[in-house]
Amino acid sequence: xxxxxxxxxxxxxxxxxxxxxxxxxxxxxxxxxxxxxxxxxxxxxxxxxxxxxxxxxxxxxxxxxxxxxxxxxxxxxxxxxxxxxxxxxxxxxxxxxxxxxxxxxxxxxxxxxxxxxxxxxxxxxxxxxxxxxxxxxxxxxxxxxxxxxxxxxxxxxxxxxxxxxxxxxxxxxxxxxxxxxxxxxxxxxxxxxxxxxxxxxxxxxxxxxxxxxxxxxxxxxxxxxxxxxxxxxxxxxxxxxxxxxxxxxxxxxxxxxxxxxxxxxxxxxxxxxxxxxxxxxxxxxxxxxxxxxxxxxxxxxxxxxxxxxxxxxxxxxxxxxxxxxxxxxxxxxxxxxxxxxxxxxxxxxxxxxxxxxxxxxxxxxxxxxxxxxxxxxxxxxxxxxxxxxxxxxxxxxxxxxxxxxxxxxxxxxxxxxxxxxxxxxxxxxxxxxxxxxxxxxxxxxxxxxxxxxxxxxxxxxxxxxxxxxxxxxxxxxxxxxxxxxxxxxxxxxxxxxxxxxxxxxxxxxxxxxxxxxxxxxxxxxxxxxxxxxxxxxxxxxxxxxxxxxxxxxxxxxxxxxxxxxxxxxxxxxxxxxxxxxxxxxxxxxxxxxxxxxxxxxxxxxxxxxxxxxxxxxxxxxxxxxxxxxxxxxxxxxxxxxxxxxxxxxxxxxxxxxxxxxxxxxxxxxxxxxxxxxxx
Length: 679
Description:
The protein is α+β, with helices and mostly antiparallel strands. Helix content is 45%, strand content 11%. It is flat, with a radius of gyration of 30 Å.
């Protein structure tokens, strides 16, 4: 009854843009529905007019307003998010996993509801896709300092997760799920504590789990959640250790099943009910192309980056930024136009007639004010920011500088989201030196960076080109800071260096500069030519269709697990933790070491030969080996020969080994989440 009234409320509430089918699915995710509904009358005369005002939270993004319904969710509800922006490029780049068709849903009147639509050719293709994402989540989990599943088991889930509706078209079937925008790892671990695999949240539960026929699934969670929780409640008060296993085979099977349910009930107790926010509405920003997916992605990035995103007049970083700009102007260090740009009065596009050069002028201008390199400007900046002497600078001072830099760039371009956590801000030891630039034009840097001949000049040009590209990369959600559940703890400077080593990296830098130039021109109200590359480097979504044909960047730049440099001078985040290198990086490193190890072994054996040869002429009275000594050394030399032969055997195995292509196979019932068994 209350689920039906929930649907009525959604259809009546102007903030909700979900259709009836999606609302029926969302209703299965909510418990204690009654307090969320705004009603009049009682019994058969009750009229549902929408959701209560306090139950719906608006969230502003650069793409429009999202509306989240705040409530309580059963712990075994929800599904992991297959279309997370952080994993989409990996899927597109995979040769084993087919790229799904992701579309923007459109209603009959042409508006966009708060849901996504995804098409898969078959359930097996969907399964491969889900298995791939599970592997990414498992790899990311290993980079954490803590055991999230154990935390949930002991303490429960205090942080609210956020979900949105995805409508799956798989063969001839269509069904809706509620997938995580933020909270995929928590969702799969909660499921594991309940004894179900995370695939059940998306594919549905196999009926065999509750004694039904194998190979049949309940797509609608309303068909199985109540039955499942009834069994949990039946055994919730039993101590698993007190359930004895008798000798009789049939009775023993029943006792083991009872013990399993009792153990699950005990494990799931802390996450039986969790707080949840479900996106039920999306109102696109006026004069923009509706992009529900982009709005969701921007909220997830904000959640993980935790940057200083509120650039108001009272924001501390913005206040300090304006003081720096004012003092630089009064010292004649910057022009009136430059001062006007930094304070947000004049669009940054006015800095140069060439859009690319305008980007370079802006980045260099902000660097000159926040990270000056000349002595007079250094003294001015230190005085304005009330910093200690350079030798006493601490991480908090470097962090404050980074936030000021982001504030100036944001104000200059008119509110573009450039969180400090994602920028390539100098480490505190480099702050006193400032950021020194060549002063070359962007075209000159591009020419030097794309030179076919390796040289120090080319490397320097790529480095500076990458620095100029960072605002465009961050705004395009490509280079993200060392954060959260991707497990990617590399600093932005590390990622830039990795990209700068390749030709594609230089091309990516140019693309990012052009993209940011376009943003600057649009914010200045100028007409811009049609874009040849779709918005969103990672997603490549154009007119609602997922297009993976234009890949020109190595996905490991932004989602791989790279070792963090051991040099403290290169790290500005003391809380970052090293991640294990990805398999491809491990392979490259081992191949690189092989020749050195072989050469070292050859030198060692050669030295042993020289050693025994040198001992020969020294034989004389009281200078000879005993039979025991000779036998001992002979055995050690024989052992060395055995080791060399063993190395040869492994080499032959390497030569004949084939690439494992089964990583994306298996069935939905083969998923083993959170244990490391399924990689």
